[in-house]
Records
---
Amino acid sequence: IPTYYEGDLILVKGVADSNAIQLQVVIVFHSPYNWDTLIIHRVVEKIETSEGIVLRTKGDNNPVRDPWQIQEEYVVGLVLRQIPYMGGIITAIRSPLGASIVFSLLILVTVVDFFYSKKESSTRPL
């Protein structure tokens, strides 16, 4: 926030080379505290060390940069674009209730199409 919101779908391009990561680009990376948690923040500093590239990041809504340094193996990719609300729709569809609704709609469309096509073929002259 304010660049990306919960429920936005984020399209990410993986990076094979840390040279593709420039200052001010938004990246997705594994949290230094929990590998299973992904974070979306902007690169504010890129440091070359003897062990490789280290990145400093900052969330757009945060007043100060993050307390950690990200090594390049933590980076998942660069954010290419966002599709507002689409992530929320996908999450809703993946829930049991959402899947049931989608399945019910598919059955309804199939039944209506079947009866409509049967009615149309019976009224057609031979």
Note: The chain has a mean pLDDT of 91.
---
Amino acid sequence: TWSKKRIMEVYLNVIETGDGIYGVEAAARTYFHKSAGRLTAGEAALIAACLPNPRKRNPASPTAYLLRRQARILDLMVKIGEVKFR
């Protein structure tokens, strides 16, 4: 069986994040020209806001709808706090 950390790692490396873009690292480099580890919380939230339809939504050019989703995700990130894996 896989740990929660491993499940998240695999998911974040294979999820479609744009047309022909797979994984958060590829999304970070495509949309924000930096590695995923250097994303701001706002940039990470914009990538997440594009789901579940990343082919129609572009985090580098967010619509008002995406910005509302980003704000909601950022609010939840603050409420949840840092997630630590064992």
Note: The mean pLDDT is 93.
